[in-house]
DNA sequence: GATTTTTGCACCTAGGTGGAAATT
DNA sequence: TCAATTTCCACCTAGGTGCAAAAA
């Protein structure tokens, strides 16, 4: 596991920024939730192989709850706490904006989920693409979905298969503020938008 | 003509920023060409009515040469000059990035060609969407194309119709530098990205 | 010379960061 | 008091303007 490659049938998916994800995975990745919506960092980038170039596919992401427990960061460690009673709500599906599209299109270059946003606001409505609604202090596992789309005679859509791809190193805990200082230092180190917080920023050549 | 509405069969298209285009049309619109590619301003925004919500359509733009003449700005006026000998080259087609999509999608909101870029560089290759290749000092007329897409049994695509919509007020002359000072003042007045050139910028409340 | 195109630039728009302070 | 969330912010990235000077 955690080798950055996942295979299902004829399809092969590579987690394109695998090594970056591993760095965060080593500190237990945290992702920020807020009302206007926050991007993931790292964001998910895949490379897909083995599609039929002329067939049509819908590519999407599911953010799957890993368990029904509340997690807590204490004494420098994450630990499972009480079980969550209510059914965890949430919009956990995000369809890639290029969907639907041909196999040739999807295989042509990396598939980036750069603009996916996550929120804890139940009333959130992003005009362009719906935001992912999650619960703070819960653990999630992103899962890539690839669905072949067939267009029937009567304008209806029927899918012939759906394949799922999971990369354990992309698991994360949703938070409203970073808990682990080492984790937030990784964010600052690798996210270009956080460059202002790098100690080296003003001293570098 | 120039009322901002165009009808073809069951389809009706409204030029959504009609009044802005009219302001420029009154001064003979100019659009900048350069190597990295330049957006149009105003850019083309349409509202489409009368599609079948569940049918699929491809929406695209053609930048049609109005004539084969070289135009010149002299003594405050544009005039037609010598005829262009060579066949005018160019990539004159720009498929809207949402294509293909359902009638419901297209009719849901205004269709913006905000990110279309124009260039005079024959070797230009924009990774995302191809740039429109035009000739400086030539006159062009944008034309909206709507093509119904039908998916056949054998993964092939066959179109059942294509409708075209032309709005005379969106005609323009391509240039590498603005010729008419009144025209460039309109650009400064209405394009948010040119705000720094507005006289009123620093004196406004 | 004269005209056209290119380059470099200051100045914007638009929006993504984590942190600190305020709020809940 | 404590923990979690929200708000505000300075500081970035990214990239769209017309203009002036340089180049072609």
TrEMBL record, chains A, B:
Residues 15-199 form the T-box domain. It is found in: Nucleus. This is T-box transcription factor TBX21. It comes from Phascolarctos cinereus (Koala). The chain holds residues 44 to 248 of 630 of the full protein.
